[in-house]
């Protein structure tokens, strides 16, 4: 059975995702140290208690997620659900690797790139082939919607592809030639999307003021679910790890309606 | 026809809501100056373009809202929808009064107090009759749910009372004796609600991590809509203004699915 | 009649003045959006009410200034004179473009470069022809005074050239071979000028402590007026706009004794 | 010959001026330690080199000023004029006491109170006899102008009383019933003065934007000199010291045109 | 066998030590949650791995320390020794309570009060019996040294009482009538001690610059060990817990030469 | 007799040590200005009163040190020992040059480089010959210990070489192949040393928590004295100055047990 050392995997993930390029809300990398070698990894969107239970049940020795722990301004004490998660992980020697913004932004493995693949969006690309982006830290991607012709069509397409009813704001008949998207809780970046000329913006969550911005600028807005839009980057990263090290990597989808 | 001077109304609102007691994300008070005297006020949740259009159509000379303008870190330039809102308001001499956190927190007129009234919650009260609260700036209220016996019942009750399908997370059969609530985008305060012993927490919006916290602590969670939970404080404030000054005050509900 | 689109002019001004290179006290660029196309621009030092009235009287559709609006720590509310300026500009569809530090610093169009031209100062230049500077953000220019031989001569020359009696501190008979200058309220930068070996420093305003620094270091000091020293960059920029787009650009001098 | 210990004088000055009540731009109190006992004090507006020379010539052992040393963000190194001042003071065992905002604000000895006395202004007073103020840290005083009937009259009166031609902005014929004043470089507080209903505002310095604010709000503005308006508080404080300790206290006026 | 609930003990400790009065470098209170009830507590200076091992060996269910975990600016990830400590504590259901500054400062149980008891220092007291203090957060105590007459005597006395050779700086023959002390790494507070008139200052650690300050001000300085000076507060607190709840509390001294 | 101008020496020192590359806790360079030309320099670790006395006794005109004055958050007032040091230096026209982090880090003259030379450590070097480092600002050097085979041997060797009994923590028999070092109060950087794979870490001072980190990670730790480890960089720098300018440079060792 193949294996990789905990440190070697951390080095490869850091080299691949380059966390030093981001100012993030959490540490990226090996957040909790477990066994020294790894043969079986569970990937998931969030390092929730249920995901750790799944990893224990499957006798994994590492978890690789998009949403890890130790967020900025979080109480550092180990109590309540934080204690339960940590005690379970430590008692089974699980390693926890987490990559947040670096996994949103990666040009091929990242959440934005993978959501485009799943939904058939065609990213606009610069002369060097790089995706054209906008917004803070260049987190918002720009492109064409592929087949769907109108905002209503795009809503239906997303509903079918992500198996979730999205919130759609705007004129259903609006023709879409240029759209923008950013996975997760990126509703605030609709301003950047509008400024970059997008006719519609797709993200995960929505806030009260997003609705007014969308209507007053005539920008179509689709909130397709934080979890639903961020299931794909971590799967792609897991497959890359499996290819690189020949170890077992398995995605566990703990559903989340938000 | 009765009237009040713009300055006098600002003084009365400030004396009533005491904005100097809050560190807020926006200025509270007279945000945009219009005519010198006021005879007809439109109240609303958010100073959106549509609300200003309604005020113009109704020949009002002031708008009084919960969500005004000039939020922290906002681009100060007057462009796009911000320009359109402002140009419309200025060209019709509209005064814009906005109160954010002070209107959430007011003991009788505030959003939390009014939502309790609408939903039949019974606030816990201290020896001096004051509502017992928790969380940052004491923004979360504690109490009993009134009639509803279980989380499922509470969800149904809220759906009927607010005319909106809420997001409900948790065990539907959980008996509820002590709950907590805070209107708007207060999902992050579920931690304070749990620490204060609430069996369920009601707020407006939801984030991805709220779901996991609710499930891992066994706290019921209901997101009933930002707009839907914040429609009541501004109406109560408007009625108080009408009583005080004998002028016409009218609530305009610009619906918002979020 | 020639015209340029509002966005195209913003792009050209940003490309010319490169505001992203400065950490400024205000936003640089299109501060207030008006009509979509521009045929007639009024330039001025400060976007005062009087300047806007002049632009309205002259049927201009844009104003281009050195001192715009929305200064750091300014109250964001739209009241009093701020409301009056904004209401006048918005009601006539005026665009407001403002460039602060980028216009001070531009190598040929900037206030320092243009004041040198008007007063006959010869900037010191490096091997690549660039002006040699000192002080925070390299805002202070160094050079020779041209013809004037003494501090008294320089004061007289400035009085004649700028039509204003400057405040002159120091030994009138001091011979001047190396001087420094920075337009506007740059009196605090006299320390950098002294450290760079300047025998006299010319700026716009003066503060109580400037007087003591000048006397105790033996540095000649001339405060020639904030407005008086900053009239020239905006004119040069306006002429460049006129040349580039063939539209009408007119400078309006609203005098200011300070 | 009477004397007071250096520490005892520091204690009395601190008890009188209460520097702990202010967030200031410099340390208040004994800034430089000299001899242990004090028999002869020189007071002045600013601890300039010339003032120290005067103190040495008069064989004083302490200097008491409004503008001392060690301002916020100042380079801490001891070089140039800072070195010269300090070397001179230390070599003669001079003690340096400095009080900045506490001396502006003192109800009877302070610069605002003393300027009112010199110019005949009548401060508005509250029920407890305290001066009514406005602006940051309540530094601006409100009152009536005494005899002068118009802005022009007030300018002439100030010229005669302070022996300096002030800068006067506004309508010369404006009748004045309510004015505001704050000594020194308090031009930015004209906004607070306007908001408090002052028809004219008197301070020491002026900035470019002050001119526009004054004109656009119709507030009369008089810049009477930073030094000229701040000569009186330190004299009053010196007389109080002389009365308290029976030691020699002498004011030396180093003139400053700013 | 007596027991106390984990929450009840946290409430009593918080009521006793009042952590909300301090701005500390770590969270104070229940830092790591273990079993719900507590029958046996180990106290110690620092929650080191060795202390946790001792608690496990003694079948304790809680640890109460002065130096806990989660210090400001610490890497939040759970790796290396931090992981080992936490895994050991969690796997045995240990509760970790930590109180830092509140335990230094407590008037009777605190480190300063207890070190005074052990060394025979007599604290100076105010009219209400409270200890007279100085320095940031009033952390430094003032008093008389009890029996020792000179700095050398005090050094010898401390050596005998704390079983450790202290570092002594100063004139051995200096008579001591007024001293100051603060346990732990409080060497920087020697400046406050000097300003308060102390002839000698006793603390735990020493820094290079402390030596010069002590010599140049003539203040005697004794560094008696961080651990050695902070062994007593936690013991007194443990005894108070034992008295209050009748449970077993045992002090384990993991020696530390620093 | 050779001499150098004060400014020229400052320029050469800045060019050599490149202080602009560091964010330091004090200003680096000419901290106190004295005579214009320099013929005789005293070097020392710290600009203490005793060092200044030595410079005066030796008729030097400059002092060059590692620990100068004006540390971050220091009270800027000139009182007590600060006054005494400054008065002595100013009254004898002494120039004070200080370089802190730039002198720790210099590749050949710096404290780390020189301590390696004195103790026979062999720095690890990269392809370009540069020392391999770790920790904040790359201040910690990595290398092999030279001759000593075990931690105990290294302790004995350091005792003999630096004439001081170091504090040694760890297993005396641990074989050492890779060590790390940083002079002065760098005990907090032991974490970076451990992460970089060092078996032992040598620095100047020690803190309570260093002891636990060393033991729990199995990293040997040696605190060899702040002063004792930082005597060498300033001597090397002084010799470089002597070579460059042909002036007299003399090291004065004011011993310090810390």
Can you describe this structure?
The structure is a homohexamer of 258-residue chains. The first copy, chain A, has 258 residues and is an alpha/beta fold. In chain A, α2 (49-57) packs parallel to α3 and α5 (111-119) packs across α10. The first copy, chain A, folds into two domains: 4-104 and 231-251, 3-Layer(aba) Sandwich (Udp-n-acetylmuramoylalanyl-d-glutamate--2,6- Diaminopimelate Ligase, Chain: A, domain 1), CATH 3.40.1390.30; 105-226, NIF3 (NGG1p interacting factor 3)-like (Udp-n-acetylmuramoylalanyl-d-glutamate--2,6- Diaminopimelate Ligase, Chain: A, domain 1, 3-Layer(aba) Sandwich). The mean pLDDT of chain A is 97. In chain A, the strands form three sheets. In chain A, strands 7, 8, 9, 10, 11, 12 and 13 form a seven-stranded mixed β-sheet that branches. In chain A, strands 2-6-5-4-14 form a five-stranded mixed β-sheet, with helices on both faces. A two-stranded antiparallel ribbon of chain A has the order 1-3. Chain A has ten helices and 14 strands. Chain C binds chain D through residues 46, 48-50, 67, 80-81, 84-85, 167, 169, 184-185, 191, 194, 204-213, 215-217, 226-227, 256-258, and chain D through 46, 48-50, 67, 75, 80-81, 84-85, 167, 169, 184-185, 194, 204-213, 215-217, 226-227, 256-258.
């Amino acid at each position: 059975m193949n294996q990789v050392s905990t440190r070697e995997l951390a080095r490869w993930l850091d080299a691949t995702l380059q966390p030093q390029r981001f100012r993030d809300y959490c540490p990226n990398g090996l957040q909790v140290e477990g066994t020294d070698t790894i043969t079986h990894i569970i990937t998931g969107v969030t390092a929730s208690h249920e995901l750790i239970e799944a990893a224990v049940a499957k006798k994994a020795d590492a978890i690789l997620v998009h949403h890890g722990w130790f967020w900025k301004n979080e109480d550092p004490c180990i109590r309540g659900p934080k204690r339960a998660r940590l005690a379970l992980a430590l008692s089974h020697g699980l390693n926890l690797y987490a990559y947040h913004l670096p996994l949103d932004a990666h040009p091929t493995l990242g959440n934005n790139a993978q959501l485009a693949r799943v939904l058939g969006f065609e990213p606009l690309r610069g002369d060097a082939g790089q995706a054209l982006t906008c917004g803070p830290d260049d987190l918002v991607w720009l492109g064409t919607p592929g087949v769907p012709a109108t905002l209503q069509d795009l809503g239906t397409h997303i509903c079918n592809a992500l198996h979730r009813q999205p919130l759609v704001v705007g004129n259903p008949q609006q023709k879409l030639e240029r759209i923008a998207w950013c996975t997760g809780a990126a509703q605030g970046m609709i301003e950047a999307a509008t400024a970059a000329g997008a006719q519609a913006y797709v993200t995960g969550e929505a806030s009260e003021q997003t609705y007014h911005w969308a209507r007053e600028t005539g920008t179509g807005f689709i909130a397709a679910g934080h979890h639903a839009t961020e299931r794909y980057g971590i799967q792609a990263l897991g497959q890359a790890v499996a290819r690189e090290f020949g170890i077992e990597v398995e995605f566990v989808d703990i559903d989340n309606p938000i």
